[in-house]
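Loading example: each entry is read as two labelled lines plus one structure line.
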Amino acid sequence: MSGADATIRPAGSGGMGRGGEVTAAAAVAMDPTGEAGIRAPRHGSRLPVTVGGLVATALASARGVIGYAVLGLLAAGAGAVADAYTTVTLARILALGLLAVSVAVVTGWAGLPSLGQVAPFAVGAYTAALLARAGHPIGLVHVGAALVAAGLFAAATGLAVVRTRGTAFLMVTLAVGELTAAVAARWTSLTGGSDGLAGIPATRPVWGVPALTDDRHVYWYVLAVTALVVAVTVAVLRSAAGLLLTGVRDHEARMRACGHPVAVYLLAAYTGAGAIAGVGGALLVSAQRYISPADVGFEVAALVLLAVIVGGTTSIGGAFVGAGLIVGTRDWLAGPWPGHAPLLLGTVLIATVYLLPGGLAGLIDRLRQRAARLGVRS
Amino acid sequence: MTALLAATGLRYTYRRLAAVDGVDLHLAPGAQHALIGPNGAGKTTLLHLLAGTLRPTGGRIRLAGRDITRTGPARRARLGIARSFQTPALLDSLTVLDNLVLAGWRHTHASGWAPARYRHLAGRALADLDALGLADQARQPAGTLPHGQRRLLDIAVALTGAPKLLLLDEPAAGLEDADLRRLRAVLRGLPPETAVVLVEHNLDLVLAAADTVTVLHHGRILATGSPHDVAADPTVREVYLGGPIEAVR
């Protein structure tokens, strides 16, 4: 499965080669055979790096990029061959996938299990829907406004939320999510109440481009924005920011004792994750041209947390695969096997927890390690 | 000369029990000060108060003349107070190298972009690991290290920011001879201006490393002075001979 290469994990096994830049330290960390030839320097800060180490690093990051590219092309191709219903469902999977990425950043990377990422998702969705209904059809504007509004919302709520940990964090985020859904259901004059906002005009991606009335075009637009957000997210998580977050997740007291302002890091992660969820919300509105409190309620929050657990909590590719599995189980199996989707989803969760600790991404890691061992033996 | 650390009348009360009860502690730069006493004497609590992980219920703490009584642990770390933990506190999923890089991250003067800072810190970290005999484990996740190496790495992490004051919480606990020798070498090799507060049950290490010893008992200072004087103090002898005291074995 190409998702294997799309899996990223905390910097435990890798250094921080940012973008195309190759750092000596990344070469140290990414060269499992130790052939990079890094030696402790006697003076100064520059590490002697051999060509082998640089090549290994370049290959490692290129493989990740290729993995994402293959996944993106497959997704784009799926839009070309699928029927209309499937295309819309795929677009919704991508939007919920961004929500799952948001959950993965907070839960997997920052180590804070969140049920509240639907709140910034809702803020982004309603922001985009209201803009579209007010006569602003440009997708770029929707996405930008949703990103900013959801980010500000997350920053404001985060001030209270990141002071809590563990179960308390789970409960506080649940409360934030539920309150937001309640506001969406009650503030009828703005949100249309539980009826939601319908009749949202078709999105125009940028100025000078016709409105996207074909489901396939909508899907490709959603895919392009999703790919951009994923690329930025992965780049940030592979930078020092990912390393710092992993440190906080591993041992908060140690990070503090080393002078790290842990609360600032967590607030930044929570805000960034909120912005990602907000973009997901805007894309959902473009995909289904309708938004209601049911799209941002507890059921969605729980399903997305489930998707992240199934995919592997630190895996961005896994978040999308998990979202696909969950939405697929719920929406496609509802046809041939009506009423049994919750049962199936429950079974998937229990099976994942018992059989796949680390989710699908963890399974792929283990298969890879086993293949490597077999390769060494033969 | 102003004291590096001046703690006066420190108190910490937990559920009406005074774990630390009016302790004064003054350290000059470069002082090596050991805290000994039976379990429950308040040694670790006192370290928490100095590190900022616990807020004192009374008293004042000054670092180089600056009042830090209400300053949090991260800020205190940036001001130059570093610590080791009773149970080694490492970032287990990160490599040994990355543990040291993150330890220096907020202290380094290598300005500019993160990759340059990382390179600079990784270079220094590799030299430090070499000195500790951990160079071969640099790329291993810290969670895979055996206990002795975890303890040494925990201390190396504390030392990375070149602290003015180093708080060590039972650094010798569970160490085998080879690692104990390394620990002694690390303590001997500290920069002369680095002050140390050492909580330790291993009296050999205390006698070898400390120039002043304070004996705590029920949260109060029983005696303080040179290791020789404290060992000869009749009150200390009376208390210690009266019951099983771990520090005197």
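Confidence is low (pLDDT under 50) at residues 243-249 of chain B.
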